[in-house]
Design a protein that fits this description.
- This protein has 14 helices and 15 strands.
- It is α/β, with parallel strands linked by helices and about 400 residues long.
- It has two domains: about 230 residues, Response regulator (Rossmann fold, 3-Layer(aba) Sandwich); about 150 residues, Rossmann fold.
- The chain has a seven-stranded mixed sheet, with helices on both faces. The chain has a five-stranded parallel sheet with strand order 2-1-3-4-5, sandwiched between helices. It has a three-stranded mixed sheet with strand order 11-12-13.
- The protein is elongated and about 65 Å long.
Length: about 400
């Protein structure tokens, strides 16, 4: 498996410049607009840059193949900073002002906030990283994602903690749905494996210190701490636990899978002791290998987390436009499930366009893996565990979707 280190989280400036330049172009009569709604600033800003760049790469490939029958794809990009209120405002501009047939890239909180808008305006919204379990109930009609539910993250974390052979594990969980829901699944997995849970602490983000929360955790001397938190709170917790004498191992959730974590906390305190879990593409698949080669050719960098999922969003929407009876969000919504499951397997827009022109049904096999949507608009997921080695993240374990069947 090719190592997808977090060094590659910042895309080459040429690709990003293309994404933001595209957002300023006026639509022509032959264009169809897609909104790219991502956090370019804030804790998740690095992930948002990856998503915006990978969507733009997909759009470029679609347009290079002659575009869709509805015209070339055009993107408009906006920064949410991870704020749902900003997300609603910017998405409304995209849909009502720019005529977007789809809005892609929202984070969990923003995605949930957009559900009513999507259904009211009949506009598809899709995310490559919104794992929130709220979408397990709300998703499925105009609301899709190319990543699995947070419940899968919890299952992967629990499986890893069990396989490591720890006897005693503490859990520190930021008070947000996106961290609490997978933590609960991991907690249940630990209980089923006979591992002692020494502490289960839910903490509020934004505090200057978490020493009060750490008193019991450190006193009980766990073999490992499972930390499900954001970058700001996570760094503080790691520093204070280290200063308090914690010498065990860590398992972090995806928000901490960034290269900056090593400078922020001290690589010497993480090397060989810290692991991170996140939803990831199966890099052994030919579809991923082709995407990886394309990405590196265009950017000179390895794909970062959720890049493959983001690229797939552009292709799914483009193929849906090619298949749909109308060049609208309603048209896309009517056929997107058929594009993702059933028919002749295709892994590129150009191949799918050719098959559709020949009157065939297609099954888009994505760079991120199979994308058959369940009732909530969610595919099955695979996961990677990385370990801190010499101040960087390196792959140590991959769990395919079949591991959780």
């Amino acid at each position: 498996m090719k190592t997808q280190t977090m060094r590659s989280m910042l895309l080459k400036s040429t690709l990003l410049a293309g994404a933001f330049t595209a957002s300023t172009l006026a639509a022509s009569a032959q264009d169809v607009t897609i909104g790219v709604l991502v956090p370019l600033t804030g804790e998740l800003g690095e992930f948002g840059k990856i998503v915006a760049g990978a969507v733009e790469l997909g759009v470029a490939e679609v347009n290079a193949a002659g575009g869709t029958k509805c015209g070339n794809l055009r993107t408009v990009v906006a920064d949410t900073g991870g704020n749902p209120e900003v997300g609603i405002r910017e998405a409304t501009k995209m849909i009502e002002g720019e005529g977007a047939v789809a809005v892609v890239g929202p984070t969990s909180g923003v995605m949930v906030a957009l559900v009513d808008l999507a259904k009211r305006t009949k506009t598809v919204i899709m995310s490559p990283y919104a794992g929130t379990i709220t979408l397990n109930e709300l998703g499925g009609d105009y609301v899709y994602r190319t990543v699995s539910s947070d419940l899968g993250d919890g299952a992967a974390s629990g499986l890893w903690l069990s396989e490591k052979g720890y006897k005693r594990v503490a859990m520190l969980v930021q008070n947000e749905e996106s961290t609490i829901s997978p933590a609960q699944v991991a907690k249940d997995k630990l209980a089923a494996s006979g591992i002692e849970l020494t502490d289960y602490v839910i903490y509020n983000p934004g505090q200057p210190s978490y020493q009060a929360e750490l008193v019991s955790v450190l006193a009980n001397a766990p073999d490992a701490i499972y930390l499900a938190g954001g970058q700001e709170s996570g760094v503080t917790v790691i520093k204070e636990a280290t200063a308090g004498g914690f010498e065990g191992e860590w398992l972090f959730t995806a928000d901490l899978a960034v290269p900056e974590i090593f400078d922020a906390t001290g690589a010497q305190y993480l090397n060989d002791r810290a692991f991170v879990e996140f939803a990831d593409a199966d890099s052994s698949l030919p579809e991923y290998k082709a995407f990886d080669a394309l990405y590196q050719e265009r950017t000179g960098a390895e794909p970062g987390p959720f890049a493959a999922n983001s690229y797939d969003m552009a292709n799914l929407i483009a193929l849906s436009l090619e298949k749909a009876d109308a060049c609208t969000g309603e048209g896309v919504n009517a056929v997107i499930r058929d594009i993702a499951d059933g028919g002749e397997a295709v892994s590129t827009f150009s191949a799918g366009k050719e098959a559709i022109a020949a009157g065939k049904d297609v099954n888009y096999e994505g760079a991120s893996g199979p994308l058959s949507f369940d009732a909530s608009g969610t595919p099955a997921g695979s996961y990677t565990i990385q370990q801190a080695k010499d101040g960087k993240w390196e792959n140590v374990k991959f769990y395919p979707a079949s591991a959780f069947e």
